[in-house]
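Exercise 3.2. Students should predict the tertiary structure of the chain below and write it as structure tokens, then compare their answer with the key that follows.

Predict this chain's 3D structure.
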Amino acid sequence: MSNTIGLIFIGVGLAFDFFGCLGLVRLPDVYNRLQAATKCVTLGTCSILFGTFLIVGPTAAGMKALLCIIFLILTAPVAAHAVSRGAHRAGVKLSEGSVVDMYKKDKEGEV
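Answer key:
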């Protein structure tokens, strides 16, 4: 039973990784692409690792998978925020379809 659930988690993770990679190609600017890449890592890769944990159980490999999940959940959003803030400070423009620029409001002291 846990093998089946583990395979389902791995399949869902592969789907998230696929659509995240597709978003890297299709989205218009660095900020949208970064959002797609972050979702790809946090949801896709963590789902694959959790499925691996369910299949192998609480062995050494399973514990390493859980530790990797914790590490990814803690570091991926922080890294994405740092990269997007650095891109904004470097002057990378948003796409024409972007509606809100919260970094610009923050820089001007509105937020």
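Discussion points: Residues 2-108 form one domain. The chain is about 80% helix and 0% strand.
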